[in-house]
Design a protein that fits this description.
The protein has three helices and 13 strands, in the order ααβββββββββββββα. It is of the alpha+beta class. It has a 13-stranded antiparallel beta sheet.
């Protein structure tokens, strides 16, 4: 009783302090997730994208994925291999600190398109992932609040500082391996509109965990998209040209 009363009095007398500590802990957790994710300098994987419509019908995509992380620089390239109607399509993301550029190459048009701010909420290649979802999740881009932390799971409320299609996101973080287990995306009416679930984790290097499957659910459209990783190769050098416009078109 005395402990509860003391906490109650502190919360009444010093609410800014509690809010600051809460935000600091939440930011610390997300920064640790980002730090561990970024410890892998080079990564190459094969991916399958399976898009389910509301009737359960599917479309399948085969993708080669390349990524580079060093200091504040992040580079990633997705190259579509199958089916034939999307073969050669490339998607390049370049991040340097808080600056991010996304470029899409469509072979049928023979040109490279830079994704604008107004296109960030568009579906990526007809999937349930948007361009914003596939962008760099830099901790500096968010204001965080710690909602709950227990049983090796922390729930963070994140609001993006710049324009976003979401009012806020709830991140569910495993605080033993510091991996993202789930994310829930909300609109201005506090309605959950999308949900991301990660599963089948692998310890790829020195307590750095990667999910081998992620599923994005579009709750409004009643559809989903699965991403499945295989043949993961880490820290084998990838040539610089891969992450250029020349590499984007050379598939």
């Amino acid at each position: 009783m005395h402990r509860y009363l003391s906490f109650f009095l502190i919360s009444i007398l010093f609410p800014p302090l509690l809010v600051a500590q809460n935000s600091e802990r939440a930011t610390e957790i997300f920064e640790e997730v980002d730090t561990r994710r970024s410890k892998i300098t080079f990564e190459k994987t094969d991916m399958r994208m399976i898009i389910y419509n509301s009737n359960g019908n599917t479309r399948n995509r085969s993708i080669s994925s390349f990524s580079f992380n060093e200091a504040d620089q992040e580079k990633s390239l997705l190259v579509f291999e199958e089916p034939a109607n999307v073969r050669g399509t490339g998607f390049l993301t370049l991040s340097d600190g808080n600056n991010e550029v996304q470029k899409l190459y469509l072979p049928a048009l023979g040109r490279i398109q830079t994704i604008t701010a107004s296109q960030k909420a568009d579906r990526f290649m007809g999937s349930d992932f948007t361009y914003e979802d596939l962008g760099d999740q830099n901790p500096d881009d968010y204001d965080f609040e710690l909602i709950q932390e227990k049983d090796k799971t922390a729930v963070l409320r994140a609001v993006k500082k710049e324009n976003s299609q979401y009012a806020y996101i709830k991140f569910y973080i495993n605080t033993e391996r510091y991996s993202l287990e789930k994310a829930e995306y909300f609109d201005e009416d506090d309605e959950m509109i999308k949900r991301l679930e990660a599963e089948d984790f692998t310890n790829v290097d020195a307590n750095i965990w990667r999910a081998n499957k992620m599923t994005m659910f579009d709750l409004r459209a009643e559809r989903k998209t699965e991403l499945i990783w295989s043949n993961r190769v880490i820290n084998q050098s990838i040539p610089d040209w891969r992450f250029t416009e020349r590499g984007l078109k050379r598939n």
